[in-house]
Design brief:
Length: 437
């Protein structure tokens, strides 16, 4: 396995794990292919988890348009019906057996771990050709050090949802800064309302994204070692903000995916929410046909101390799998597919590609005619461009346990970020990767 000059720093670090997981055979592929050499078309297999629900443009229909226009590069798309974790297990098994797909949908937080395991190809030379078509923050989600393993598809920047009618009644505007949000919290609580919810079951991704919005970078490399900094200045600002609201009981402390959140939304006591952009597709469903229908709006995340910046809470890209014999052709389709913005938006995605996207009728109705996808597009452009994940990020789910303790008063919000720091360092070491102390 030749080491090219570009295969350095973090890429060199994760190569240790890749070799140990799959051996040198995993690095044997990389033939770019030539669809014209033998006269037969190149076939690209694409495994995805797009919903393909009612009223959406089916993935098969999008792919059929490509196939009709590209007789030399034919794509076979297969929908995986199951959890993301189950799909990852299937990919690991199939790639190790030498019969994996050429392209697969992968979450940004999963990418480094998959690269460590030798499941993904470094296709930086091809990917860089399309970099300007996508948000810089989303594109960074497909990087592992100097390696680039695919192209981004959808994003989850944090935004602020709020009930405009209720805000107006309280004399409030959409908050622009954390100070605004703190002041609004006091005003709303005095009236029996909440303009935020603290959601411990979402702490891992939700609070990490807020640190990113505050300008922090959790994972970098120092020489040949990983460096973890989950307790930076941004995390301290985030912790102080939420600790203040918890101590003063001026935030609704409830699980995001529990009954309490929806109940507060429905009874009108919850009138604001720091949430991921993808929540716009379903957040207000329970208000359909009620007096609150059409009252809510979406705004940019308040300034967490780094200016007009958001952080990533979810999202996925399309990666080139190890063993793909035609990565150049795969990237060509990948770039085309992920820039079919209206089709992907119909799937409920907040697309990573630049360009105008038409807000669907449902969102227009629920958000009082607001051009929601334009607002979410701005948030995507405002993503922190320097917030990559690291192998083992999934283990940071321990943050949720500490967050629940913070709600109970047996831990602090700052402790959540300490949990992130300690867990990330331990996880990297467990993977056999060097960590700077």
């Amino acid at each position: 396995m030749a080491i090219t000059p570009r295969f350095t720093r973090t890429a060199a670090i994760v190569a240790v794990g890749a070799v140990s997981a799959f051996g040198l055979a995993a690095c044997s592929s990389g033939d770019s292919g030539d669809s014209s050499a033998g006269g037969d078309p190149v076939t690209i297999e694409y495994l995805h988890r797009l919903p393909d629900g009612e009223g959406m443009t089916p993935t098969s229909e999008i792919v059929e348009r490509w196939n009709a226009d590209h007789p030399d590069i034919q794509v076979k798309a297969t929908k995986f019906d199951g959890k993301s974790s189950d799909m990852i297990l299937k990919l690991e098994t199939d790639v190790k057996a030498g019969n994996g797909p050429c392209l697969a949908q992968t979450g940004y937080s999963e990418v480094p771990q998959l690269f460590v395991k030798g499941l993904l190809q470094d296709v930086a030379d091809e990917a860089k050709k399309y970099e300007d078509d996508f948000s810089a923050g989303a594109f960074s989600g497909m990087k592992v050090g100097d390696a680039i393993v695919g192209l981004p598809q959808d994003t989850g920047p944090l935004v602020y949802f709020y009930n405009e009618a209720e805000f107006t009644a309280l004399g409030l505007d959409a908050p622009k800064t954390l100070d605004d949000l703190t002041a609004d919290s006091a005003t709303a609580t005095a009236a029996g309302k909440y303009v935020t919810a603290f959601t411990p079951d979402e702490a891992q991704n939700w609070l990490a994204a807020q640190s990113a919005a505050a300008g922090d970078t959790w994972f970098t490399t120092a020489g040949d070692e990983w460096k973890v900094d989950a307790e930076g200045d941004g995390s301290e600002r985030v912790a102080a903000f939420w600790q203040g609201l918890l101590d003063s009981k001026q935030t609704l402390a409830t699980e995001r995916w529990g009954e309490g959140f929806t109940a507060a939304l429905n009874d009108g006591s919850l009138i604001g929410h720091v949430g991921a952009a993808w929540e716009a597709g379903f957040l207000l469903d329970s208000l359909d046909g009620t007096p609150a229908e059409g009252q809510w709006r979406v705004a940019q995340l308040p300034d967490f101390g780094a200016g007009a910046m958001s952080g990533p809470d979810g999202g996925s890209g399309v990666s080139v799998m190890k063993g793909c014999e035609h990565p150049a052709e795969a990237k060509e389709f990948n770039a085309w597919f992920n820039t079919q913005v209206d089709d992907l938006a119909s799937q409920g995605l907040v697309v990573a590609a630049k360009g105008d996207v038409e807000t669907p009728e449902k969102m227009l109705r629920q958000f009082g005619g607001q051009d929601v996808l334009a607002e979410l597009g701005t948030a995507t452009e405002n993503l922190n461009p320097d917030f990559p994940y690291a192998p083992g990020f999934s283990t940071l789910s321990k943050m949720n346990e500490t967050a629940a303790a913070a709600v109970a008063g047996t831990a602090t919000v700052a402790d959540i970020f300490t949990t992130a720091q300690d867990t990330a360092v331990a996880s990297l070491k467990d993977l056999g990767l060097p960590v700077a102390e």
